Structure formats: structure tokens, C-alpha cells
Amino acid sequence: MRKPKPRDADYQSICAIPQDAVVDPRGWAPERIILAKGVLDNPAYRAYVDRVLRQFPNAEVVEALDRSWNSADLLKGVPFAERFDLGKRTLVLGTRGRFITTFPGIFEDVRCPSFERSHFQDLCPFSCAYCYLTASTTSRMAPQVKIFVNLDDMFSEIATAVQRRGRLFLSAGELQDSLAIDWFAGQARRVVEFFAGVNAKVLFLTKSDKVDGILDADHRGHTILSWSLNTDKITRTIEAGTAPLARRLDAARRAQAAGYPIRYRIDPILADGPDWTPGRDAEYRDAVRAAFDAARPERVTLGSFRAVDGCKNAHEARVQAGRVERAVTDRALAKIGGDRRWRFKDELRFAMYHSIISEIRALDPEVPIALCKETLEFWHRLGLDPTSCKCNCVDEGVDLTLDPSNPARTPARGGDPITNRYRAGSTSGATHSEDDDA
Question: Is 0.85 topped by the overall pTM?
């Protein structure tokens, strides 16, 4: 590391970064890199930081070593749309204390299973117009892309949990894109090979095509790769900065050829008006056929647009500021469900689900299909079985009809007493934050 040059009381600029790095021309390049608390605490961390800095010789690099990863650059006083945009151009390197957290689930009329997660990064460089995480505390206060350099601490925490419980399934894709910046971060391979050696599985979720670093990794089937998919048009417009659909599917094809289990998440399904139009229907049917031509998923999860007030307001602010294209029209939305989210109105939502499910069933009559954050009524109307929910974020089938108010109830078939907890107010042992509302 080079000796820092004083800048002001809070930050210091690091100068003289070597100019010998080659940046992937297809990859994201941060304009600023912030070093948060703990990242220079030992030689291994410093070596990793130095490697990242060499990749971006033109980035402004500042130190905020007295601040944690989620408060290193709060951008106070900056309007939200601008703050979010600035965050997408900034990388924070930090250390995290506790890695394993729990999404406690939703168990009102809308159902969503509980699951556990462990993220080695936070947020992503993409700028999807509908981004659910705009409503989370972290995104609103500290919207920067973040890398946690203390992977060994995460591995130790997971190994201890496996030893205590015997088995673990973790999502590494709810609050981050698992592969978007791996071309320079280089963490995914270490995660894959760690999970290969323990009685645990990890789920990667991505809108990228950055699989080159893990294709030849020893994964032993313990890492599941899931692609968030949408129509070709939406991936090129509404999901700004992401890999277009064809590139995502080529990555899925290559990953399946390398032996990885593959899942698809078609989410959010977006209408182009208050009705389900033939044009939008054809776009989604084309996307489904292309997806199944590329790889055969072990399961498919469908989700429609669903936004808490904070997310909907953030979308509108970003549209008005000219930062993103409009993803939805208010005329198509209503507050539906006990979780008080803005969803497409019932008949529109049913039409989109029914169309996509029929296309999937024509290609594969047996593949499990699940709905994300939907009502039991819709599960039944669409001919799906909520007693064996095999959605993207869980391992085995989960019974969504179980009554969470009964503390003596039996965990769902094939499930784990911890990962099958649900929340209808509070759940013992579950970690809940506003990030769970994303």
C-alpha cells in the first residue's frame, strides 16, 4: 500500500496507484473506491485491497478507516435519485462482522418462505429501474457497491453453523448480485470451493454473464447458479447495465455444461400497460423458449412487480430525474395483500402468470414452478401446489400453508427447523431489518 496523502479530517486520498492494470472493457468500473474500517488490518486484507486498486488506476481512492462499510459514505443532503446514482459509481471495501442472517418470511395472505443468507458483497453495479432494494435502509443510506474482504471470517462462521446443525442452505444473491463484479473481485471461486468441502449449499443469483472464473472450479454440486431473467427488451432498457438476455443464457448453458445445478427466476414480470398485451406476451414466451433451449433448470420461480411504498416512490423519483426508464404505469397497480405492496391488479397478474406457466409446461411438464411473494389464492388458481413450494431461495420443498402461529407445528417436509421459520410479527432467532422488505 502507498502512503496516504492527507485530504481532510475525514478522508485521505491514496495516490500513485500503479498504471499496469487492464480493466475488462465489458465490466463495471468505479469512479471512486472507499476503504472502510478494517480493510488494512492485516497483510492479507492489504494485499487484496492493493490488487483491487491496481485494476482501477483512474479511480479516486479515499480512506474512511474510522467508519464501517455501511456508513463510510452517507452522501448526506444529496437528493435520493442522485445519491443512488453516485452510489452505483462507487466501490466500498470493508469488513463485515456477522454474515449469516435470516429473511424471516411473509405469512399473511401473501406467502414467502423463510430462508437464510450469507453475502460476501452488498448491492450491485446495475441500475434496474424497479430495484426493490431502493426501499432498504442500506440502499437509501449507503447505496454503494461493497466488497467484504474478510471472507475467512464468513467461512469460519458457516463452518461453525454446519458443525452445530449438520446441514445448511444459504442464499448469496438476495442483497447482492453474486457474479456481477467477480471478474475483478475474484471471490466467487473461493466461495464455491469452500462450500464444496462442507455439508452446505449456496445459491448464487445473477443478472450477469460473469461465470468464467468458476466454470472449472471444484463445486461438487454444492453451488447452485440461478439467473434472474426477463425479456430481451427489458434486459436492454429497464435493467440498465445488466447482461442482455442472450448473454445470460449463454452463461447458464456453459455453467450447466460444467455440472452446476441451474435455476431460473423470471422476475419481475412487467406489463407494458394496464392490460396484458399480445406484444408483451410474445416477448415473454420468446424468453422462456430461449431459456429452455440454453439450459434445463431444476426449478423456475415467477414473480410480478411488487413494491413497498419506498420502492415505488424511489422508482418515480429516478424516472423524474431522468435516471431510468419507467418500468410500470400506476394505472395497472393497486395495493394488494397484507404486506401492503403495490402489485399489478389481479386479472392482469393472473394473465401474465398463466401465459408464462403454459409456455413452461409446453417445454417441460414436470419442472417445479413457484410464485414469489404471492397469495395462496393465486397458487391455487394457477394449478400450483403451495404445500411443496420449491422456490428459488430454498433447498427442499416448503409447505406454505402451515400456520406459523402454532409454535408446536412440525417443520415442512424435508426442511430444517431453522430455515423453515416464518414471520407473522416476530420469529425467535430471525434477524429482521428493512432490507427484508426489498
Answer: yes
